[in-house]
UniProtKB/TrEMBL annotation:
One of its GO terms (molecular function) is DNA replication origin binding. GO terms for cellular component: plasma membrane. CDD domains: Bac_DnaA_C. One of its GO terms (biological process) is DNA replication initiation. Gene3D superfamilies: 1.10.1750.10. It holds the Pfam family Bac_DnaA_C. InterPro entries: Chromosome_initiator_DnaA_CS, DnaA_C, Trp_repressor/repl_initiator. This is DnaA. It comes from Lysinibacillus sphaericus (strain C3-41). Residues 1-34 form the Chromosomal replication initiator DnaA C-terminal domain.
Length: 57
């Protein structure tokens, strides 16, 4: 959800829909959670960077 929010222009409801009909507030929470974790988690930073690279972003 984090990368969907970061890398697309999809609305929160659309992202939630693509993740099995989740509510837009779930998307917000997921994005905030990962954003917070990225501040201190070097492994997560590397993982997100690698996924972005794989996606060509």
């Amino acid at each position: 959800m984090y990368l969907s929010r970061e890398l697309t222009d999809f609305s929160l409801p659309k992202i939630g829909e693509e993740f099995g009909g989740r509510d837009h507030t779930t998307v917000i929470h997921a994005h905030e959670k990962i954003s917070s974790l990225l501040k201190n988690d070097v492994q997560l930073q590397q993982d997100v960077k690698q996924i972005r690279s794989m996606l060509g972003k």
